């Protein structure tokens, strides 16, 4: 299998805090991996460095063997790497379809206002993630948390990603919404998508992933299958330290 994403010896310091401490991993085509760890372990910080929203202090990031570590976020999105955010932040003034369009083309707001595109592509994405047609012209304030997460997925998918980083996709969802999003992820996996996921909903996460890396205080403490990692005593005690 072809390596898609390679993270090599990644380090991120915030002053004296080492939020990412020498983390390395390779994600292969079609693989689905999760980063596990308690609150503050450093999971989101790794996502932000992969997307270029935070600059790493040391180490490098490679996409299909090309080093992307110094590229701006927009250039990484252009290379078809997508992420969703732990807290969805749609544009409040725009409709659902416009948010899907704008999210992946941050400079296109002027084009959109000028050209009034038919948004057919955005419609297809909204349909794919399971948003109801009645919601397409609504604004985000009118959506449930489940629909906001679907909108996050659709927005990130607009760049036709080869790899998706999903941060807390299940947070704030009802059981029915968790299974809808899970089905969507499984379907995309069957179509060959590569995923890196983070979720505190461990039962929902388990059937979606092949491999897991546990992080504590920025550093890897275990890796293997989901069950192997969750059975590791160091991982258990890192989670227990959370409460
Ligand atoms: N911009 C920042 N400036 C300073 N410290 C930061 C910054 N972003 C994150 N941190 C710190 O880095 C550490 C890792 O945070 P991060 O958000 O990556 O954790 P996480 O594993 O995603 O946690 P959670 O499960 O709560 O989302 C925390 O101690 C956090 O306070
Ligand atoms: Mg986080």
Protein architecture, described:
It contains ten helices and ten strands. The protein has 243 residues and is of the alpha/beta class. It folds into two domains: 1-80 and 161-243, Rossmann fold; 91-159, no CATH class. The strands form two sheets. It has a six-stranded mixed beta sheet, with helices on both faces. A four-stranded antiparallel beta sheet has the order 2-1-4-5, covered by helices on one side. Strand 7 (163-167), helix 7 (175-190) and strand 8 (194-198) form a beta-alpha-beta unit. The model has no long low-confidence stretch (mean pLDDT 93). Bound molecules: adenosine-5'-triphosphate and magnesium ion. The site of adenosine-5'-triphosphate has 12 residues, from strand 2 and helix 1.
| CATH architecture label of the largest domain | 3-Layer(aba) Sandwich
Quick one: CATH superfamily of the largest domain? P-loop containing nucleotide triphosphate hydrolases
Helix content: 25-40%
The domain tally reads: 2
The CATH class designation of the largest domain is: Alpha Beta
Kindly name the structural category.
Answer: alpha/beta
Task: Report the uncertain regions.
Answer: none
Give the cofactors and ligands: adenosine-5'-triphosphate, magnesium ion
Name the helix and strand elements from N-terminus to C-terminus, one letter apiece.
EEEHEEHEHHHHEHEHEEHH
How far apart lie the N and C ends?
A: 39 Å
**Major sheet description:** 6 strands, mixed
Report the strand count.
10
